TrEMBL record:
Keyword match rRNA processing: no
E.C. code: 6.3.2.4
Name the UniProt record assigns to this protein: D-alanine--D-alanine ligase
Phylogenetic placement of the source organism: Bacteria, Pseudomonadati, Pseudomonadota, Gammaproteobacteria, Alteromonadales
Pathway: Cell wall biogenesis; peptidoglycan biosynthesis
Domain ATP-grasp residues, every copy: 108-307
Family indicated by similarity: Belongs to the D-alanine--D-alanine ligase family.
Location in or out of the cell: Cytoplasm
Keywords: ATP-binding, Cell shape, Cell wall biogenesis/degradation, Cytoplasm, Ligase, Nucleotide-binding, Peptidoglycan synthesis
Length: 319
C-alpha cells in the first residue's frame, strides 16, 4: 500500500456525524480517525455537515476530505457528488460506487448479472406490497428470511423471521426506514467480512454472536460478540474468499477502501451479503481488526485510507 508523509496531505476535513440513522457510530468513527491523524502530525479538523453548511468548506483552506459519514447523506453518493462540485478531493468510492453499494437490492442485481453468488431474494415495495403475500414469500425463500431496508446500514431495521406473521411485522417495521425492503433467504452458517484497502484484501474475519443475527447491538453495544482473525479458513478458502470479495467490491464500482460481508453455508459455499464503502472505524469495528492482523496499526490504516484521496491510480476509479 502506498503511504504519504503527513505534510503531503495538506489540511484535511474529517467529515463525521451527519443526520443519518447511523450518526452516533459516525461520530465515534470520526473522532477516532481525527485523533489518529493528529497523532501522525496531519493538519486535520472535524466537520459535521449536520451542524455546518457544506459551503463552509469553500471558505476554509481544505485540501481534501476524509469521509467518515455512515449511511444516507454520506455513504450513498450525495456527499461525494457535492464534494466533486466543490472540487475537493475525498476518500473512498465515487458517486456511482457509493450509490450502488448503499442499495442492497441493486447490489444483488448486479452481482446476479455477473454470476457472483448471492442468496435468493424478493423485494417488498411500499407502494404495492400485499400483506397476503407473506406466506408465499416464506415458502419461496425457504421459510427463514432476513428482512432488510434496502438503503440502511449497521443492521438498522433488520430482522430474522421464521413465519408469515413475523415477516409481515418485520416488513412494516422496515418500511419506516425505506420504501423498498430486501427479503433474503437466510443462509445458516458463519458470517465473514473482508476489508479492501487500496485494492488489497486484508485477512478475513469471522463473527460469532449469541444474538439471532449480527445486529446493531452485537456490532456496537454488547461484549458478547466474538471476532476470529485469522478466521479459521484454509489457505485455499481464504484466497477464494479474498478474490470473491475484491471482485464483488469492484463490480459495484467500489474503490479506495471498503468492506464486503459474506455468509457461508454448510456445504462451504460463500454468498455475498452487501458491500460497505465507508465502514465503521470505532474500537469495535472490523476494518481495524483486519488491518491489525495484517500487521498494520490503526494510525497507518487511517493514513492508507486518507491516501485514497490522492492521485487517481490510488483513489476512485474513473466513472
Amino acid at each position: 500500500m502506498k503511504l504519504y508523509s503527513p505534510r503531503e496531505f495538506g489540511r484535511v476535513a474529517v467529515m463525521l456525524g451527519g443526520d443519518s440513522a447511523e450518526r452516533a457510530v459516525s461520530l465515534n468513527s470520526g473522532q477516532a480517525v481525527l485523533a489518529a491523524l493528529h497523532r501522525q502530525g496531519v493538519d486535520a479538523f472535524a466537520f459535521d455537515p449536520a451542524a455546518r453548511p457544506l459551503t463552509d468548506l469553500s471558505h476554509e483552506t481544505v485540501d481534501r476530505v476524509l469521509i467518515m459519514l455512515h449511511g444516507r447523506g454520506g455513504e450513498d453518493g450525495s456527499m461525494q457528488g457535492a464534494l466533486q462540485q466543490l472540487k475537493i478531493p475525498y476518500t473512498g468510492s465515487g458517486v456511482l460506487g457509493s450509490a450502488l453499494a448503499m442499495d442492497k437490492i441493486h447490489s444483488k442485481q448486479i452481482w446476479q448479472c455477473l454470476n457472483l453468488p448471492t442468496a435468493k431474494y424478493q423485494i417488498a415495495d411500499k407502494s404495492d406490497f400485499e400483506a397476503g403475500s407473506c406466506g408465499a414469500i416464506m415458502h419461496e425463500l425457504g421459510n427463514e428470511v432476513m428482512v432488510k431496508p434496502s438503503r440502511e446500514g449497521s443492521s438498522i431495521g433488520m430482522a430474522r423471521v421464521t413465519s408469515a406473521k413475523q415477516l409481515l411485522t418485520a416488513i412494516q417495521d422496515a418500511f419506516k426506514y425505506d420504501n423498498q425492503v430486501l427479503l433474503e433467504q437466510y443462509i445458516d452458517g458463519p458470517e465473514y467480512t473482508v476489508s479492501v484497502v487500496q485494492g488489497e484484501a486484508l485477512p478475513s474475519i469471522r463473527m460469532s454472536t449469541p444474538h439471532t443475527f449480527y445486529d446493531y447491538a452485537a456490532k456496537y453495544q454488547d461484549d458478547t460478540t466474538e471476532y476470529f482473525c485469522p478466521s479459521g479458513l484454509s489457505d485455499d478458502d481464504e484466497q477464494r474468499l479474498a478474490a470473491l470479495a475484491t471482485r464483488a467490491f469492484h463490480a459495484l464500482s467500489g474503490s479506495g477502501w471498503g468492506r464486503v460481508d459474506v455468509m457461508r453455508d454448510a456445504s462451504g459455499n460463500f454468498f455475498l451479503l452487501e458491500s460497505n464503502t465507508v465502514p465503521g472505524m470505532t474500537e469495535k469495528s472490523l476494518v481495524p481488526k483486519a488491518a491489525s492482523a495484517a500487521g498494520m496499526s490503526f494510525d497507518d490504516l487511517v493514513l492508507a485510507i486518507l491516501a485514497t484521496s490522492m492521485p487517481a491510480e490510488i483513489g476512485r476509479a474513473a466513472e
